[in-house]
Amino acid sequence: MQLARFPRVPLAHLPTPLEPLPRLTAALGGPEIWVKRDDCTGLATGGNKTRKLEFLIADALAQGADTVITAGGVQSNHVRQTAAAAARHGLACELVLPRVVDWHDPNYPVGGNLLMDRLLGATVHIMDKGVDRDAEMAGLAERLAGEGRKPYVIPVGGSNPVGALGYANCAMELTSQANELGVTFDALIHGSGSGGTQAGLVVGLQAIRARLPVIGINDSDTADELSAKVSEVAQGLADMLDVAGEVDPDAIECIDGYVGPGYGIPTDGMVEALKLCAETEGLILDPVYSGKAMAGLIDLVRLGRFARGRRIVFLHTGGTAALSTYASAFDWG
Ligand SMILES: *Cc1c(COP(=O)(O)O)cnc(C)c1O
Description:
globular, 4-stranded parallel sheet, 6-stranded mixed sheet, Rossmann fold
């Protein structure tokens, strides 16, 4: 698997740290828990989309684009990192942002990621909840092309095989860090949404035969919808990378039960997870993805899925840029 065959621009601070969480481990009394800090990728406060954008922006530049178009919720981390990556490369950036989340914190419609999108010079198109994001992006691309611009559309979450290359790379990075430290992991757990992170990890780990199971905690649709998305991107990536054979369907594990009433809506488990990680480790999670994923991890530990003596790694995918738009989810907010 030679990733250098694909065009890539540097955007992320790599490698991200891999650290033990001894006080969280002690508080839960189960397996040893470590964290891979992809919240520290560095681009406009970082997060998991930065690794994908290294390949997506390179592809846009290779195709001669002068504008990138992408979409997401009003507080999308993917959109904010895309706006920053575009700014870094002198590309214009157009954002399709439907109000998909019914969350009414006063900061939500103005602060957090959206404030940064605007600071980064992106053109923001706020839309009604029901619009078809792909159709809106296609329409915008057509209109801009008609004006002589050269748009490049990045799908929601940057989740296509090109973007997922970033997480095949992360799979190798994590494995080599673990090898250097002399530690092995029994599972890798993370928050999963549009599926590209999980697809890249699964295919990357399969390609190097790491035998490290990946567990995606579903943070938006149902686990079935998520595994369909992960499989599709994973198979496309495996073909691109020439990884032999089909992607093993058993390697795609998506766990439901922690999203609560819906995408971006706070849950009690999320609030508990944010407080516990902050108080035991000084580690800040986010309310939409990593907090619900950690709530899942905590629950799986309590259910006895991982014995004491096992070692698991939590991939922190970022998202803390939106935290202040959720102040009212907390007792003192
Ligand atoms: C986008 C995102 C995820 C999910 O990653 P996907 O590749 O879309 O599945 C997880 N955590 C955070 C903070 C994100 O912004």
